[in-house]
Amino acid sequence: MNKIKLLYDVVNTLREKDVLRGVATGQVQKDQARIFYVKNEFEKNLLTKQTKANITTEVDYEGKQVKHQSITEFTNLCHGGQHHKLFKHMHPGSCGGLKKKLTKLAFILHLLNSLKAEEQSDKTTLVTLEITELPEDIKALLQERMSSTDSCHNHGPHCFVKELCSIEKGNFSLAMSVNKDNEIEKIVIIFEGTQHNEQDEQHSLSINAELQLNEQ
């Protein structure tokens, strides 16, 4: 099966939709204890840019427990400032230079090469991706990107995100189910890794995310 053609058809099918509805969930576990959970039931109008979301969040980290639920509605509008950001990313002398851009391109090509697509008995197509070892230059780039973000600093109960910045190695897998009409039905992402803290103690960390898209 032609993987590039399949992805092209899936993207075009998404482009033709006026409304996306679904449920996205994610959780982070450290040493089998859940430290973060989020569930987002959403509806996004791709024409008006209006989004409705029912979000549930639970945090249990370093003795702090937070539970929050909210229903929100907002509209995303593009501003002129985005054009400036786009220009910066296109300019070969900015944002790390051409070498980093080629590293990012190599990463994308590495992912495409690692993709597998198999037709199932029910006429759906299962797209899978498994990564157990990344090239050293790509790992260095990802680590730099993670450690440079504000999320890797202490910000109240959400400082657990810093755990993600200290991951040393891990396995990544993705599974995407596509129906016969080139519509995405479900995406499941799993990451399992290890880390060492300041006391040189080893811990396991796992991230599970799932996106279920509903038919209109």
Protein architecture, described:
With 216 residues, this protein is an alpha+beta fold. The protein has one domain. The protein contains 4 helices and 9 strands, in the order αββββααββαβββ. It has a 9-stranded antiparallel β-sheet with strand order 4-3-2-1-9-8-7-6-5. A hairpin with a 4-residue loop joins β2 (33-45) and β3 (50-61). The radius of gyration is 19 Å and the shape is globular. It starts with a helix and ends with a strand. 4% of the residues are buried. Residues 81-93 and 153-157 have low confidence and may be disordered.
Helix and strand arrangement:
Layout: H1 3-15, E1 19-30, E2 33-45, E3 50-61, E4 64-75, H2 81-90, H3 97-114, E5 116-119, E6 125-131, H4 136-148, E7 167-178, E8 184-196, E9 202-214
Antiparallel strand pairs: 1-2, 1-9, 2-3, 3-4, 5-6, 6-7, 7-8, 8-9
Highlighted features:
45% strand; alpha+beta; 216 residues
